[in-house]
Design goal:
Layout lengths: L10 E2 L7 H12 L3 E6 L5 E6 L2 E2 L4 E5 L4 H8 L2 E6 L7 E11 L10 H7 L8 H7 L2 E14 L7 E6 L1
Parallel strand pairs: 1-9
Antiparallel strand pairs: 2-3, 2-6, 4-5, 5-8, 6-7, 7-8, 8-9
């Protein structure tokens, strides 16, 4: 993957939680239940799926069933685009570009307390242990670039663009 270059207005660092818009982005990444994962198929066609995720302040962790299109795509090309659902009728957007890697640490499972706690209130098809057995492929996404904006009419627009 070619590292993204800085665009106009982009800063090179991580989220500064003392800044209101950065704190808002971090809050959404920690609390939103779904993030959309965009990968590229070996023939170049895009593939987009919603996934449960865990943001730790610097990386995104997802879990997958072993034999899925996203896993095959990531084995071929680890470049990804993540997008939170657009909030506030599309006026609040967060996008992350990054690189995925498969996690071999056996302690990284869908039964991790932070992950279980985040999804405890959502209806599940399977109990947490059974879900973790099925979604047994942990994938860590390290962001290279983050872009977020709020453009609701009647308030000052806010835009954040960071390269990590």
């Amino acid at each position: 993957m070619t590292e993204p270059s800085l665009s106009k207005g982009e800063k090179e660092h991580s989220l500064d939680l003392t800044l209101r818009h950065h704190a808002h982005i971090d809050h959404r990444l920690r609390t939103e239940p779904i993030i959309w994962l965009g990968t590229t198929r070996p023939d170049g066609r895009p593939h987009l799926v919603p996934v449960w995720f865990l943001w730790d302040g610097s990386t995104v962790l997802i879990f997958s069933l072993p034999d899925t299109q996203k896993v095959r795509n990531l084995r071929h090309n680890p470049s990804v685009l993540l997008a939170l659902n657009a909030a506030d009728q599309g006026y609040d957007v967060v996008l992350l570009e990054g690189r995925a890697s498969f996690v071999s640490d056996p302690s990284v499972r869908g039964t991790m307390p932070a992950f279980v706690e985040k999804y405890a209130s959502l209806p599940r098809r399977w109990a947490a242990d059974e879900w973790a057995e099925k979604f047994s492929v942990p994938i860590r996404i390290t962001p290279a670039r983050l872009v977020g904006w709020i453009t609701r009419p009647g308030i000052a627009a806010e835009r954040t663009a960071l390269k990590f």
